[in-house]
Design a protein that fits this description.
The structure is a homodimer of 388-residue chains. Chain A is α/β, with parallel strands linked by helices. Chain A contains 15 helices and 11 strands. The first copy, chain A, has helices at 21-36, 53-56, 62-69, 87-100, 120-128, 133-137, 143-157, 162-180, 194-198, 227-233, 261-274, 291-300, 312-315, 331-335, 342-355, and strands at 4-11, 45-49, 78-82, 106-113, 202-204, 207-208, 218-226, 238-247, 283-285, 368-375, 380-387.
């Protein structure tokens, strides 16, 4: 298989937007195409992630409308993916294969979501569809509840008293807000402190408001191409070195939710393909939909031993400048989480980091980066390893 | 790229079902796996099409739940696709690439849909989301209206008086019901005559009830593998010789809906990849969501000159035994149309035809077959060419 390069990236500002799904995606896609130096007419296929357009705009089958808006001709296929919050990452991994295989030389891939126009009750309900509809959603479980249970399990399993764990969880939010404050595309660009989190409204015990990522509108896009073309059109191609994807069923079928098997399997695939290990990763964008989620993810990816992930919040190892900087973009927590776009936005950040274009939030000398996205109750997990 | 073989196929009976999406897909998937002679533990990835599970069951992110039900381990990725009525065909084309590229040796791919529990008004509304939400759906257009306009355009453009065209359209329904009557998995297994159509309720002028395919529940699945493995496990591998996919925007951006550019481009891709032309196709399953849709599709695929497709209904050229038998399964019209499953069900029929397993509806000596699925207003089109 051929080496696959990322020649261009684009991303809208995350947060509330008056634009439509088509308009949002087009903004990110055109930026990515311009960034790549590849002519729009050379785009051979479009892969796009979108979760809830059916609900937010009554728009399914969105691929063709996006292709049309971008002026792509009728022979350019446009494929929509949905894997809950991992949606865009699934699209990127899939697009990777179409270039790696030699079938296409230039593909556009990304994701888009509009949530805020639905309002919080409808957004919460539609997000919950990523859990098992028959047993979980039906019994009233939504994602704050899923991750609240995870926090309790983590506290008990590793014998970390809940107040101590909550403070460490709060530090995830503090770190990611500090990073987001340096990201002009982040939804929240303000620093907070531990007290901000611990004094915020209770959402689902023990998760408080600032333990939770926001609802967001936004889009992100990436142009994938061959090594040969990338070297011609841009100075600093970033390469996709490894990809992995795992799956899982309902929570009741997962033995221990603190040790997510689908994520462990996915990460191992990506590491094996890249010929790398956790110790080789210089920067990581991972799925901090809730503060506890970042801690658990950092363990499943192998950055810390199981049960030790929360310690890193006290030592600062996951801050920019630490052993393994996590979510320098601000993460889902501060950058925002337009679910169908998040995976592509993670790729955007890692590409910018590896190119050294992140200014105040730059991880100095980063050469290898990783993304991690979780859909549903770990039902869909995707990992990508990128390098220069 | 490697040659890709279809080692096994499975399909539920189409029509109303009490089973859930997961149960329906599992039934088809296990049949496909058993048919293939490949052990379930050797399935390396799952690709699945589903359009409206978010609405019919409140279930998104369905891939992981299907993988779990099938007992697939957490390292097996499960990807959901949505491209309106072309959903499952997009999944098959994508799965093809993962095997052709050499990345996976055995993948399971298919589609599933439940519609009937939603009832006709909700089904009609959710189907309409595959049209442009801002201008078409918003102004009240649903698919019977889209294809009714197509029939009027066709009548005027080719100067075929509407009564004459309507009789020919009725013959599409008569033919497909005759075929469906010989298909034990078809939703409607009864023959009708021209009067049945012309005396049925008016739906959207000039389309009457029997010009329209039904709402359906159902699932279909296919096991793809390498030529080498297929030859070991089964007697008659069928190969994917060509694939194509096209896209289009809103109706208002399509110059002439009787000459669908996305379908013409898609078919050309498939023919070119296979090194074949329309004259080489022995049997075709194409997208007869409405009777006029079959006529237009048969022209876009190159079986007849533009404007001449309806003549074939008088000469019998598209019947079993004719020049190019179309929809021997009964098509969407009689076999049924569980939208997210339809593309995989078309593949099921063509595989059975090429293996010579279709009994009363067998197209004798068929060696090359083609599928064609249309999503939305031709927004997503996929064609596959299969051969032995």
């Amino acid at each position: 298989m051929r080496k696959v390069a990322i020649a261009g990236v684009g991303m809208t500002k995350f947060g509330a937007s008056e634009k439509s799904l088509v308009e949002l995606f087009t903004e990110a896609a055109l930026e990515a195409i311009n960034d790549s130096g590849i002519k729009p007419g050379n785009v051979q296929a479009l892969f796009v992630g979108n979760c809830l357009g059916d609900f937010s705009e009554g728009q399914a089958n969105i691929g063709g409308f996006l292709a049309s808006e971008l002026g792509l001709p009728p022979g350019v296929p446009a494929t929509r993916f949905e894997g809950a919050c991992a949606t865009a990452s699934v699209a990127v991994r899939d697009a990777f294969m179409w270039v790696a295989s030699g079938f296409y030389d230039v593909v556009l891939v990304g994701g888009v979501e509009k949530i805020l126009n639905m309002g919080t009750p409808m957004a919460t309900r539609t997000f919950a569809m990523a859990s098992d509809s028959k047993y979980e959603v039906f019994s009233g479980l939504t994602f704050p509840g899923v991750f609240a249970m995870l926090a309790h399990m983590y506290s008990v399993k590793y014998n970390i008293p809940l107040p101590k764990l909550k403070e460490r969880m709060a530090r995830v939010a503090v770190k990611n807000h500090a990073n987001g404050a340096k990201n002009p595309l982040a939804q929240f660009q303000k620093e907070i402190d531990v007290d901000t989190v611990l004094n915020s409204a209770m959402i689902s015990d023990p998760l408080q408001l600032y333990d939770c990522c926001p609802f967001s509108d936004g889009a992100a896009a990436v142009v994938l191409t061959t090594e040969e073309i990338a070297k011609k059109v841009i100075d600093k191609p970033v390469y996709i070195l490894g990809t992995g994807q795992g799956s899982a069923g309902a929570l009741g079928r997962q033995k221990d939710y603190t040790v997510m098997q689908s994520r462990i399997a996915s990460a191992r695939q990506a590491y094996d393909m890249a010929g790398l290990g956790p110790e080789d990763i210089d920067v990581c964008e991972l799925h901090d939909c809730f503060t506890i989620a970042e801690i658990v993810a950092s363990e499943c990816l192998g950055f810390f031993e199981f049960g030790k992930g929360s310690d890193a919040l006290e030592t600062g190892e996951t801050e920019i400048g630490g052993k393994i900087p996590i979510n320098p973009s601000g993460g889902l927590k501060a950058k925002g989480h337009p679910i169908g776009a998040t995976g592509a936005a993670q790729v955007y950040e890692i590409v910018k980091q590896l190119r050294g274009e992140c200014k105040d939030r730059q991880v100095e000398g980063a050469k290898i980066g990783m993304t991690d996205t979780l859909g549903g109750d770990a039902g869909t997990i995707v990992n990508l390893i990128l390098g220069i």
